[in-house]
Specification:
Belongs to the 4-toluene sulfonate uptake permease (TSUP) (TC 2.A.102) family. Helix content is 76%, strand content 2%. It is an all-alpha fold and 265 residues long. A two-stranded antiparallel sheet has the order 1-2.
Length: 265
């Protein structure tokens, strides 16, 4: 095993660590790791990302459910439309995208490059949210009454994002659960982990019939990520989440900038 591969597998622990600490963000790391460290094709890397993030989040959500941190009503309201959106996008939209996606004279934009550019833009948006680290104390649901219609629409949008680029969307889900469902931030993080888990698995199932998977690679990577989420959930009891998220935000911004520069070059 090369040093680059060892670094890639070690990074799997960081993926789980981030999910355990922040309730999301792990998928922001998995795609760059798969594409740039292991050389996996972009579309297949999004499938792998869905499985790893889904499995890791599922383990974390079981712990949250046992400790009664998850709001199941809000989960259903957000997740049902999201499930539909993510499955349809993985099953039909992504395979239907032409390759190249765009052509103008000598300029050609392959589908894989377009997905990476889109992913990098999403990373920048996520990094900005983490660096600002504004966890809203109140919003539309300051009265504690969830806005189920708005939650459903947001679920559709997050499902489309998850299906297209293999990102769980935790950086979007957590603030929406605070604003639209009136959940405390800790409860929003726990509920987000469950939504990410099911979202990711639904997207993965949309791929499984037309994608060849290397389970000898995928399962060890996922196992290390699961170890990471246990570490993250343990450290979350002692570390200030705002400072961690801000530092991770700067790291994500650097990775996104690297992705854009590398693709342009």
């Amino acid at each position: 095993m090369s040093g680059q591969e060892i670094f890639g597998y070690a990074s799997a622990i960081i993926v789980g660590l981030v999910i355990g600490l922040a309730g999301g963000g792990g998928s922001i790391l998995t795609l760059p790791i798969f594409v740039y460290v292991f050389g996996i094709p972009t579309v297949l890397a999004t499938t792998y990302s869905l499985f790893v993030v889904g499995s890791t989040s599922l383990v974390g959500s079981v712990n949250h459910i046992i400790k009664k941190r998850v709001d199941l009503r809000v989960t259903v309201a957000f997740a049902l439309p999201s499930f539909i959106s993510v499955y349809l996008s993985r099953r039909f939209l992504v395979p239907a995208l032409p390759d190249p996606l765009f052509r103008l004279n000598a300029f050609v934009l392959p589908k894989s490059d377009a997905i990476l550019y889109f992913f990098a833009v999403v990373m920048i948006i996520a990094a900005r949210a983490m660096i600002r680290s504004d966890n809203p104390a109140q919003g539309e649901a300051a009265d504690g009454r969830p806005r189920y219609g708005s939650l459903a629409l947001d679920g559709l949008a997050v499902g489309l994002l998850t299906g297209t680029i293999g990102a769980g969307g935790g950086f979007l889900i957590v603030p929406m659960l605070v604003l639209l469902a009136g959940l405390p931030i800790q409860r929003a993080v726990a509920t987000s982990v469950l939504i990410i888990a099911v979202n990711s698995f639904v997207g993965f199932l949309g791929d499984i019939n037309h994608t060849g998977l290397n389970w000898n690679f995928l399962l060890p990577f996922t196992g290390l990520s699961i170890i990471g989420i246990f570490i993250g959930m343990y450290l979350a009891r002692f570390l200030a989440p705002d400072k961690l998220k801000r530092g991770f935000g700067w790291f994500v911004l650097v990775v996104a900038s690297y992705m854009i520069i590398r693709e342009i070059m």
